[in-house]
Amino acid sequence: MPRRAALRFVISTFLLSSAWQPATAGIVDPLMWKNAQPFDGATQGPAFQTRLNSDILAERLRSRADLGGIEARATELLQLNPADGMARVLLAILRAVQSDVEAARALLEPDAVGDARLPEVELLIARALIAREEGTLERALMAARRAVALDGSHPYAHNVLATVVYRRDGPAAALTHMERAAELAPDGATYWANFGATLAEAGFLDRAQSALTRAVEINPVACDVLLGLGRLDMLRVQPVDAAQSFSKCLAVQPDNADAARGLAVALIEARDFENTRAVLDRYAGLIPDAAMLRVEAALRAGNADAAQAGILKMEEGTSRYLARGRLALMQSDAEAALSAFERIAETPAGRLGVAAATLALGGDAPEGLVEEGAEQALFAAYGHLANGAPEQALAALNMASYAVPGFAIDGLSEADLATIAPETARAMAGPLFLRLSLTGGAAPQLRQIAEANPNDVLAAFFAAESAARVGAPSIDLLDSAARIAPDFVVVQVMRGNHFFAQREARDAFEAYGAAAKIRKDPDVLVRLGLLGETLGEDAAAEAAYRAFLSVQPDSYIALNQLAWFLAVRADDLSEAKDLAQKALAFQPGNAAILDTLGWIALREGDVELALERLEAAALAADGGAPEIELNLVEALIVAGQMDRARAQLAPIVMRVKDTPLQQRADALTSRVTP
């Protein structure tokens, strides 16, 4: 896996993780009481009825982690029957989950309990939660483990144990308990949401997606589910999707602090600064570090005045000095930046800021920087360039691969670096730090340096990458870099990406082809194959797909892509079937693979099998792949099932109007028209 940019990770993860820390360190607690439906008989007088209703509350907590209605109902039940131990303990659990430890303790004091009999498992759960909120994790662990030992089938006990383990040992250690809670309560959306959030924290994003999908199926509007989805989307670098989930939660719970802050962070990551300001204005009272987020948004937007005003309102600390240093570099004031970064030099971001400011002021990069991470190696490389040592710079650049997305040294030579002037290398230090810290102002500063130094391939690349990231023109810079170093693979990949996005197929095909000659990158090869098919370059397309498969022989994507090509373009059904069946073994139930196998069966004349495969593919695609549904219509026509074919086709026709699929839909319409 490519090394993730350390500085960018430090800043973005700080923004993200802070949104999850206050309650359960990344795990969502079940706080859904505002959406709960009232249940009948809650206020009836007989002690039996009140106890029955408290048992209903307890079962709701157990089976679905649903604390809905407890605040009002348990209080009511206690007033009707002060000896109702279950209601008392459930109310204590709610108070603990709300971090109101004093109220939770008061409910369990001997004088308050009196003669009431407290249910042992729920009492242990309450004590575990109280201890967890007080930070006495060993005591919390003992209570939670005791609850699980007394009732191993109690999913909420496992859930609470998991939250304690998470706080003490991290997400990976909590997975077993989270999974057990979900297994014991398959209809508990909260359990699946917590399990999914924990999987995401541990880095198992695909499994997290499955768990959260299950939570959505059970309760698509529960805030814990929506927060889990938002968290996963942030980890997948899909901030727009995350913002939607956080917004949905706020629509249900307008005072949910995690959702409010999560929305602000997601909007910042999506560079939607106007809506970021609106969210921070609206939810300022819910977000404890709103001042820091305002500064972050201003810095990323390149708004120096707003950043300066916001910094004055920030509390003293690491975030404030980091912001000051970034602002100073935005204003090309390396001395002020150095002064700020030196205050936090013990942190990775501060140490890197010191290196950048020192280089800009004519000093040298610190010794040993190259071994500390990708970004650190990048600044070490520029330190060598500033001292006229291209050979050492190239070695350091090799360690700096993926310091920014896609960067690698394939095709870059020592000679390409020898033309870089020392003063240019120093000038790059400040803007590069701005780019790595996602601060505004990097793109124009880098472009200015690149244009002033037309033979500096690195300046051209970093200027183009920074410009493309903020939506500014970049192709002229990329063409300049390609002229300087035509074998520099990342430049050709970026050129291909640009032309691909602009739908300039031939230019994209040539750029990706140049890149593929230097490095067999799966993403490049699959796009090269698709473009080859589009342009009628079938030999090149097949070669690209086979190269993709040689790089990733166990990739179901590579297997299926080649299988489809062979079945449709090369008329080689035998190899196509073998490849598709192998792909299906790696990814059972995948819609695209089932579609390929269905199409092959149709070509072979096995209409019954074709229908079976294509119907399964359409079901798996769940409306997201009209091309698969059109293949099913084709099979229905061949099978003579014209009524079904018409019914299947009718809703598709409007969906594919004015798309490349419209021509085929129209042709099929003419075939099913009586």
From TrEMBL:
Name the SMART domains on file.
TPR (SM00028)
Query: What are the start and end residues of each TPR repeat?
Result: 189-222
Superkingdom: Bacteria
Signal peptide (UniProt feature, chain positions): 1-25
Report the InterPro entries cross-referenced here. CellSynth/LPSAsmb/PSIAsmb (IPR051012), TPR-like_helical_dom_sf (IPR011990), TPR_rpt (IPR019734)
Task: Decide whether keyword Repeat is in the record.
Answer: yes
Repeat among the record's keywords? Answer: yes
Cross-referenced Pfam families: TPR_16, TPR_19
Checking Gene3D superfamilies in the record gives:
Tetratricopeptide repeat domain (1.25.40.10)
Keywords, A to Z, come to: Repeat, Signal, TPR repeat
Q: Which SUPFAM superfamilies did the record assign?
A: TPR-like
Q: What is this protein called?
A: Tfp pilus assembly protein PilF
Q: Which organism is it from?
A: Thalassobacter stenotrophicus DSM 16310
